[in-house]
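Hey, can you fold this one?
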Amino acid sequence: MSLEKILERIERDAQGEVDKINKRASAAESGIMNKAKEEAEALKARMIEEAKEEAELRKERLIATARLDLRKELLAEKQETINAAFKKAIDNLLSMDINKYRELMKSMIIAGIQNGDEEIILSERDKSRLGKNFLRDVNSRISDKGKKGRLTLSRDTYNIAGGFVLRRGKIELNSSFESLFKSSRDELESEVSRILFPES
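Sure. Predicted structure:
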């Protein structure tokens, strides 16, 4: 075999090897590219899913916060309405016909006394509007019930809307309207709430 033929054969064999290597490299490159694309698609899908989950969680948190804020606002408005109802109740007592108001005060004092020799402390307004005979009438009714009937009207006045304070020595029984409503507010508030907000 001549040198030329040997060289041609070596060149052909070498070219065959190069072609095989190129084919394998091309197949490997294609496989790597396909795998990279699949991984990229999987990563993209995972990121989209995580973003959706995060968005859903954020939406739920925002809705929960909005509901909580709404409940707080409604509660504040209800509380304001209930406060107004209690204030209106006191205002109604204070604007009663004077004769009815006197009778109410007499009944409350008689129910609140222990011995019949306590001192009555009124507001400046009630002191002037209840009249001179008020204390005499109360003492007379107390005497009729078998008690001392020696209540006295204090020179002091208290800054109260209405009602009174009974004092005996250092002990005071606060029967002002504000105090009475405040002490029974917990009990009355649920009933007032039911009347004002029946749908709740």
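The beta strands are 119-122, 152-157, 163-168, 171-176. Let me know if you want another pass with a different chain boundary.
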